[in-house]
Design goal:
alpha/beta, single chain, five-stranded mixed sheet
Length: 150
């Protein structure tokens, strides 16, 4: 699910189980913002009790992220992406991956939604993106909305 109610802040909530269909849906949801053509920041998190993706599912996500369209539009429009993982192992894997792979936008792993949201809002402000409300209020509203997912 991609929440765009707070644009230019996008919040992507991965389903409990990633499938080829859910990854395709994720791509369709981002297409709306690619066509919109305005810069944004992303906070990506897994729903609570989500299963870690299998190697096959990770490959599907990697193929999508590395597709020419996502590389082009992500590089042009995405100011920053904050990826939340409660697993220190998964954060470590992403950090190691980022040593050898460079996405077209800044991507950082975080242990909490709060830390990821703070980073995304800081990056949005630093890039002069026009947030829909003042930062402390937006932070409170987003965290309240995500309470059932985290």
């Amino acid at each position: 699910m991609l929440i765009g109610d707070y644009f230019p802040l996008l919040v992507q909530i991965q389903p409990k189980v990633l499938t080829a269909e859910s990854i395709a849906k994720m791509g369709e949801e981002f297409e709306v913002y690619f066509r919109r053509g305005e810069r944004y920041v992303v906070v990506s998190l897994q729903a609570k009790n989500a299963h870690s993706p299998s190697a096959t599912e990770r490959k599907l996500v990697a193929d999508w992220v590395n597709s020419p369209r996502v590389m082009e539009f992500g590089g042009r429009l995405c100011v920053a992406s904050a990826n939340v993982s409660r697993s220190a192992f998964e954060r470590g894997m992403l950090t190691a991956l980022l040593w050898i792979w460079r996405p077209p936008f800044p991507l950082k792993p975080f242990p909490t939604v709060e830390a990821a949201l703070d980073y995304a809002l800081e990056m949005a402000t630093g890039a002069s993106l026009q947030l829909p409300m003042d930062t402390p209020l937006l932070r409170r509203i987003v965290l309240e909305r995500l309470r059932d997912f985290i």
